[in-house]
Amino acid sequence: SYPKHVTIVDVSPRDGLQNESKTVPTAVKQALIDDLIAAGIKKLEATSFVSPKWVPQMGDNSALLEALAPTRHADVCYSVLVPNMRGFENAINHRPDEIVIFGSASETFSQKNINCSIDESIERFAPVAAAAKAQGIKVRGVISCTVGCPYEGEIDPSKVAYVTKRLIEIGAEQIGIADTIGVGTPLKVQRALRAALEYADIAMLSGHFHDTYGQALSNTLAALQMGISEFDTSVAGLGGCPYAKGATGNVATEDVVYMLHGMGISTGIDLDKLVIAGERISKFLGRPNGSNVARALINK
Ligand code: HMG
Ligand code: MG
Hints:
Layout lengths: L6 E4 L1 H5 L9 H13 L4 E6 L12 H8 L8 E5 L3 H8 L5 E7 L2 H8 L3 H17 L3 E7 L3 E2 L3 E2 L2 H13 L4 E6 L6 H11 L8 E5 L6 H10 L4 E4 L19 H10 L8 H15 L6 H8 L1
Parallel strand pairs: 1-2, 1-10, 2-3, 3-4, 4-5, 5-8, 8-9, 9-10
Antiparallel strand pairs: 6-7
The structure holds 3-hydroxy-3-methylglutaryl-coenzyme A (HMG) and magnesium ion.
């Protein structure tokens, strides 16, 4: 049966922008976050504390959180990605509400994305998770390439189960199941989710589906049918990963919200205001709006 309420995590300020080659000014990122919150988004990925040599676009991580500080909303969860203790030390000054440690079900993707093996990544994440928890900060784990990998092709669900187990062992309270390159189809995504369920409760799991092959909304529905009630989405469908060539953005937040509301599932989000947020950032980036719902509503 379907959940009655779904939590939307808008990842556009991080996943949506990290792949932009042109530097997006901090003020534009701040305006995007303000717009998302005005639309009712209660959880978002603000930035990542990764190496600026690897992902230059996130190099203003500290400046952005400083800019957000005076108007920080107590009822909004500001998440940041943290790959190692160095990133945690930089992030902690800004008191994020949640940190995201991000591993992979594919060995090759792990090497390409964070320059270490899966097991090494868990060793790096363990002190990060412990330090976050000691400071009362929530810890979420996200697993990339749970269905397919740009380097290895199809990924065996047992790999998803293994990484889920390891992330929970070191303290992850939530696990995101990511289809990084958007190759998944509903039954394959359900298989990956079932593998994670060997170690995680359903309430701990979230879906993170990229839309490269146009399957992300179908995959979202397939996850909803299993009872998953949290999804990472990106306004205007922005995004991609610098280490997953050709992958497009996450499923558009507007499209997911429209589907959920149409199914009688609440999100707390105002779709019209969300469309404004997506239009503003798309115009700034000079890109067509990647949300079907946004385009339909604008042309109505
Ligand atoms: P490394 O080069 O192996 O790190 O990178 P290192 O520990 O050897 O350090 C090398 C240099 O980087 C040192 O500086 C460190 O201080 C510095 P130097 O001495 O040369 O001047 N450094 C840092 N600087 C700032 N912040 C840090 C940091 N760590 C080291 N945190 C590392 C390892 C993990 C840092 C690197 O590979 C990296 O930053 N990778 C990030 C890749 C990334 O952000 N990918 C995109 C996000 S993941 C994603 O999009 C998938 C997701 O959406 C889910 C899905 O769709 O699948 C989440
Ligand atoms: Mg992603």
